[in-house]
Specification:
- By secondary structure, the chain is of the alpha+beta class.
- It has a single domain, classed as Ubiquitin-like (UB roll) (Roll), CATH 3.10.20.30.
- The chain contains three helices and seven strands.
- The strands form two sheets. It has a five-stranded mixed beta sheet. A two-stranded antiparallel ribbon has the order 4-6.
- Strand 1 and strand 2 form a beta hairpin.
C-alpha cells in the first residue's frame, strides 16, 4: 500500500509504500525536497520532523537523533517507513537549501 508524503517546506508530495523508506520513495519518483546523503543513517543529512502521520523506523544513530528528539517525531528520512499519510518538515543542517 502506498501513502502520501507531504513536505511542508516546499509543498512537494509523493507516494511511498510501507516497504520503502521515505527518502527512497522520494528519490524513486524523481522528487526533491529532502536532502540526500549516505542513505543509511550515518550522515544525518535527511533529518526531518514528522508533523503528522504514523511510521515505523529502524535504529538511528544517536549522533544525529537523540532519544528526546525521536520522541518528538524527529527522525532520519532514510530510516522511516510510512504506515499512514505523513506530513514532515526538513530540519537537518541542509534545510536552507530546501527552503530557498
Amino acid at each position: 500500500m502506498a501513502f502520501q508524503i507531504t513536505i511542508e517546506d516546499t509543498g512537494e508530495q509523493f507516494a511511498c509504500s510501507e516497504t520503502k523508506h521515505v527518502l527512497a520513495g522520494m528519490q524513486k519518483l524523481g522528487k526533491k525536497g529532502i536532502p540526500v546523503g549516505c542513505r543509511s543513517g550515518g550522515c544525518g543529512v535527511c533529518k526531518v520532523q514528522v508533523l503528522s502521520g504514523e511510521y515505523t523506523s529502524k535504529k538511528m544513530s544517536r549522533d544525529h537523533v537523540s532519544a528526546e528528539e525521536e520522541s518528538e517525531g524527529v527522525v532520519l528520512a532514510c530510516r522511516v517507513f510510512p504506515t499512514s499519510d505523513i506530513t514532515l518538515s526538513v530540519i537537518g543542517h541542509l534545510r536552507k537549501a530546501v527552503t530557498r
